[in-house]
Amino acid sequence: MLGNFLGGLGIFETSPEMLALFVGFGLVVGVLFGFFGMGGSFLVTPALLMLDYPASVAVGSGMAFVFGTAVIATLKHHDLGQVDYKLGVIMITGTTIGIEAGRASVYYLESMGLAGGVISVAYVVLLGGVGAMVTRDALKGDDGGVDHEATDKDLDEYEIPEIAKKIQQTVRIPPMVTLRGDVTVSVWVITAVAFSTGVLSGFLGVGGGFIRMPAMIYAIGVPVPVAVGTDLFEIVFSGGLGSYLYGQDGGVSLGIVAPLLFGSALGARVGSAATAVVDSDEIKVYFGGMLLVGALAVGIGEVGSYIGSSTLELLGLVLTIGAAVVVAFAVLYTTISSLRVTRQQQTSAAD
Fold it and tell me: Tens digit of pLDDT for each residue in 89-100?
């Protein structure tokens, strides 16, 4: 209904307008991805659902977008030596099975006419839970998201979290494997993490990095930079595989993915550059707030779809995109302010 409502307003009546929407949204997502290492990619699928795209197209196109953004980021981490290919290859096995299970669930629910609603509810729970956790950590001053200074430390300087140590000591089922950072863990632990996040990727059309990366740190025990780099490498595979599987059934729209990737490529450069001058702690609380608003927006949109209210559907879409835009502008504003302060200090020192 929302697609027809917006079409009646002339907003999405022509392809240039739709193109501008996706390029703009991709730009915002790219800024968040480049700055936080994880960002608005998991807002793409619910936004497409609220635009009345079929669940399979929304999920498939979301996965194709994730694949494109991860390729560029993985190359950067490869150059820094932060990708553990042994870990990545082992995870691919569990991820492959998980993606197929998630994809089959989407098509099964779609055949029953329940896919859109179930996926939206899952997003509300997921975004709300992660958003609450990030916001809590930000207000407490704890680290969250990607540590931009992580690449400056040697791998042997990272301590294995206590929970990871307990898992390594408890689960000693062979075969065991030694990973970068001198971490020895059961292959079955890695496979379990990969399968769980693979299901998430295949069902929701996300890279799963905002859950897989913490899982690699706290369940497997790998150093932070290795978790980040290997996670991105794994997303390249999971996103590529998911895109291919959905694309075989017509679930990937290049008219959606191409403009999103174009905007994201530009935004990622801006976001990455911002990490050099902005303390992520200043923005972290906004990021958590964005996830909470996103959860609320998806819930409002789903209620609007259920009762046939195009106004509520439109409100949900505006809140989803608006939350990401606000955080992206917060990053840009803080970056510009920091550069001005630095320039003034340099001017004062020169005088």
Answer: 888 888 888 888
